[in-house]
Amino acid sequence: MFQLNAVPKPQHKRNRPTAKQRGAISTPVRRQLRERSLGVCERCKYALATEAAHTLRRWRVEERTTVLELVHLCHDCHYHCDNTHDGRKFLEQFRISRMEESK
């Protein structure tokens, strides 16, 4: 019928971490985020912040995620930021203000 020429898989390593790996939030970064926000939502300044949100889409993160690329939000604000145009604008402005403060 046909001849099978078995070839072993190449054993090379990935050159760059995947978007999921780059976007992962480490424990020390989570701790820094909690210290910065004092556990309060950084958008509404009212509710208890329970979620860490990327200010930049995960696939756009160049290296590992740092505290400068995160915002601490409550569930409702996180939903708002991920699903509305105004929310994306807030995240962009927040990221710019964090970058200016870090200089």
Largest sheet entry: 2 strands, antiparallel
Helix content: 40-55%
Radius of gyration: 19 Å
How far apart the termini lie comes to: 68 Å
Number of strands: 2
Strands side by side in the biggest sheet: 1-2
Strand content: 5-15%
Structural class: mainly alpha
Low-confidence runs (pLDDT<50, min 5 residues)? none
How would you describe this protein?
The protein is mostly helical. The chain has one domain (22-102). It has four helices and two strands; from the N terminus they run ααββαα. The protein has helices at residues 19-23, 27-37, 75-83, 85-102; strands spanning 51-54, 70-73. A two-stranded antiparallel sheet has the order 1-2. Helix 3 (75-83) packs across helix 4 (85-102). It starts with 18 loop residues before the first helix and ends with a helix.
Describe what is shown at a glance.
42% of the residues lie in helices and 8% in strands. The chain is mostly helical and 103 residues long. The longest helix is centred in the last third of the chain and has 18 residues, at 85-102.
Give the key terms.
mainly alpha; 42% helix; HNH endonuclease
Task: Draw up the topology in text.
Elements: H1 19-23, H2 27-37, E1 51-54, E2 70-73, H3 75-83, H4 85-102
Antiparallel strand pairs: 1-2
Helix pairs in contact: 3-4
